[in-house]
Design brief:
The structure is a single chain. By secondary structure, the protein is mainly α. About 80% of the residues lie in helices and about 0% in strands. The longest helix has 29 residues, at about 5-30. It is globular, with a radius of gyration of 15 Å. InterPro entries: DUF6905 (IPR054200). Keywords: Membrane, Transmembrane, Transmembrane helix.
Length: about 110
C-alpha cells in the first residue's frame, strides 16, 4: 500500500461518519422521516461512489465492510470525545445488528 493510498483511505473513512454526524440529523429535522431516507440515499450513495467507484478507499483481496467499520467507529469515537454517556445496550444492539447483517449477507455472497 503506497502513501497516497493510505491517505486517501483515511480521508474516505473519515468523511463518511463526518457527513453522517453533521448532515443526517439536520435532514431529518428539515424534512421529517423522508429526510432520513434522503440522507441515506445522498450520504451513503455519494460516499459509496467516492470510496469505491472512484477508488478513494484502497482495497485488496476479498470484500470487506470498510464503510460500516468507518461509520461505526467514527460515530462511536465522536460520542466518546464529546463526553456523551455510552450506553452498553446500544453497543450490544450495534454488535448484534452487525452479526445478523453479516450472516444474512453470507447466505448469498
Amino acid at each position: 500500500m503506497e502513501l497516497g493510498q493510505i491517505i486517501s483511505t483515511i480521508v474516505g473513512g473519515f468523511l463518511f461518519p463526518f457527513l453522517i454526524a453533521t448532515m443526517w440529523g439536520r435532514m431529518v429535522e428539515a424534512f421529517g422521516p423522508i429526510g432520513g431516507w434522503m440522507a441515506a440515499a445522498f450520504i451513503v450513495g455519494t460516499m459509496w461512489a467516492m470510496n469505491h467507484g472512484l477508488g478513494m478507499i484502497y482495497q485488496s483481496g476479498t470484500a470487506w465492510v470498510d464503510m460500516a467499520w468507518a461509520a461505526g467507529t467514527g460515530l462511536f469515537l465522536a460520542d466518546v470525545f464529546a463526553g456523551k454517556k455510552i450506553n452498553g445496550s446500544t453497543i450490544l444492539a450495534g454488535i448484534l445488528g452487525g452479526i445478523i447483517g453479516g450472516f444474512i449477507l453470507s447466505t448469498f455472497l
